[in-house]
Amino acid sequence: MESTTKFYSLNYTNANTYLFALLFIAGNMVLPQLCHLVHLGGPAMLPIYFFTLIGAYKYGFKVGMLTAVLSPLANSVLFGMPSVAVLPAILVKSVLLAVAAGYMAERFRKITIPALLGVVMAYQVVGTLIEWALVGDFYLAAQDFRIGIPGMLLQIFGGYALLKAIAKR
Q1: What is the pLDDT of residues 43-81, one digit of tens each?
Q2: What is the pLDDT of residue 3?
Q3: Is 4 helix (H, G, I), strand (E, B) or coil?
Q4: Which of 43, 55, 84, 145 has the most crowded Cβ, counting Cβ within 10 A?
Q5: Are the C-beta atoms of residues 91 and 48 closer than 8 Å to each other?
Q6: What pLDDT shows up at residue 169?
Q7: For 119, what's the count of Cα atoms within 13 Å in the CB-facing half-sphere?
Q8: Measured between alpha carbons, how far is 7 from 111 in angstroms, rounded to an integer?
Q9: DSSP secondary structure code for residue 11 in this structure
Q10: For the whole model, what pTM was predicted?
Q11: How far is CA 114 from CA 11, 138, 160, in A?
Q12: Are strands 110-112 and 2-4 parallel, antiparallel or unpaired?
């Protein structure tokens, strides 16, 4: 279950960096709105992270970082979610995801389920520890592990499927 693909490491001087980042930011705005139509759909599906994973893994750290920072900020300003109270924790996890996904893609140059599992677990575990330090409440910080398992599975298996689908591009 692995696929070799073209990976890109776009620079901030490349217009495609911003074009792809805008595309993934739009995805990170639409997907949460759809998930929030279902009770606890946002916390269970963790949709704000999905396109950050795809962008960073396929197009590199810089596209991932733009998506990681601008998606939560735009969602918070336009839709009030994430709320300002949880925005720092979401931003930390989102940035960690972009770093982990960009590193994994650059290091191994292939898409595998174990690689995506490693990316998701890395940003979730480290992000949870940082969130715990920020909010001082482990139960609240561990929310993604309490109810976000479906979202983590979506990131791993849905991310794998989508990355494979765009693998030759």
Answers
A1: 999 999 999 999 999 999 999 999 999 999 999 999 999
A2: 46
A3: strand
A4: 55
A5: no
A6: 63
A7: 36
A8: 10
A9: -
A10: 0.93
A11: 28, 27, 10
A12: antiparallel
Distance separating alpha carbons of residues 155 and 46, to the nearest angstrom: 9
Helices 87-108 and 50-59: crossing angle in degrees, nearest 10, is 30
CA pair distance 16, 12, nearest whole angstrom = 9
pLDDT at 20: 95
Q: Are 40 and 147 in contact (CB under 8 A)?
A: yes
Cβ atoms 49, 96 nearer than 8 A: no
DSSP sequence for 100-112? HHHHHHHHH-EEE
Selection from 165, 89, 159 nearest residue 127 by Cα = 89
Q: What sign has the CA pseudo-torsion 74, 13, 93, 169?
A: positive
Q: Please state, in angstroms and rounded to a whole number, the distance separating the CA atoms of residues 86 and 76.
A: 10
Task: Look up residue 64 and give its amino acid.
Answer: G
Beta strands, E only, 2-136:
2-4, 110-112
